[in-house]
Amino acid sequence: MMLFLKLLVAHLLGDFVFQPKNWVKNKEKKKIKSSKLYIHIGVHIILLLLLLQFNSKYWNVFLLVIVSHYLVDIGKLYFQKKKTKRLFFFLDQALHLLFLGFATYIYSPFKVNINIILSKQNLLLFACLIFVTYTSSIIINTLISKWNPEKGNKSIEQSLANAGKYIGFLERLLIFVFIIINQWAGVGFLLAAKSIFRFGDLTASKDRKLTEYVLIGTLLSFGLAILTGLVYSHYGR
Q1: Cα separation of 53 and 172, whole Å?
Q2: What Å distances lie between residue 44 and 3, 99, 105, CA to CA?
Q3: 232: Cβ–Cβ under 8 A, 6 or more apart, which residues?
Q4: Is the separation of the CB atoms in 55 and 107 below 8 Å?
């Protein structure tokens, strides 16, 4: 575990702390010919050597991490398109983490216990996370679909695409976390913050139907998240 943490810290520092945006742009433009690509790899080499304390027993780990990082970065630069940059960002990071885990396994073999992963607690947690995000979103939309005061509202039409959906996801996830760690004050703070940012604008617009529509959706969202949190708190421990 200690070895993996060292590799992870080196990766996070190299990819996010010591990699300016202009390096990323240079790599995307020049690809394999970019000098910034090799400086980036050099930064990873230095970080790994420091965190592994120049210990020769880690030579195979060191080589695997550096070579895999270079190849994954090259693959990303050549295969990603403008429309798929977000997808390739997460795919790139997932592959890096996979190789870090594999490198750790080479030096110190470990077993993955499927029974622990598929335990009652973990399965219930996974089900609850799906419910408070996607399932709750569909339930709320179905329940309030009989009203649609947002249609034709210019301020709504000018908002970010799917912003409301992802705000709802984050809102319910935060409430779920607050409930299972028994921090009910966080739920109150979140509701107060949303009231300030959302309902203040709605009141100013003097659109009563839209205000009532948003209020119903918010109460349903909070209610479902709280209920899910209570279910997990009772049955998941």
Answers
A1: 44
A2: 15, 14, 20
A3: 124, 125, 128, 176, 179, 180
A4: no
Among 14, 75, 5, smallest CA distance to 42 is for 14
The helix/strand count (H/E) of the chain reads as: 13, 0
User: What digits encode the pLDDT tens for the residues 28-40?
Assistant: 999 999 999 999 9
Token pair for residue 209? Answer: 């139907």
Residues recorded for the chain: 237
Q: Confidence class of residue 204 from pLDDT cuts 50, 70 and 90?
A: low
Report d(CA 199, CA 194) in Å as an integer.
7
In this structure, the number of other CB atoms found within 10 A of the CB of residue 129 comes to 16
Extents of the domains making up the chain = 2-107, 115-235
Written as six digits, the tokens of 66 are 């550096």
How far from chain centre, in Å, is Cα 135? 18
d(Cα 91, Cα 97) in Å, to the nearest integer? Answer: 10
Q: Enter the pTM of the model.
A: 0.76
Instruction: Tell me the pLDDT tens digit for each residue of 124-165.
Output: 999 999 999 999 999 998 988 777 765 555 555 555 667 778
Cα–Cα nearest to 44, from 76, 25, 17: 17
In contact, 144 and 220? CB cutoff 8 Å: yes
Percentages of the chain per state (helix, strand, coil), in multiples of 5: 85, 0, 15
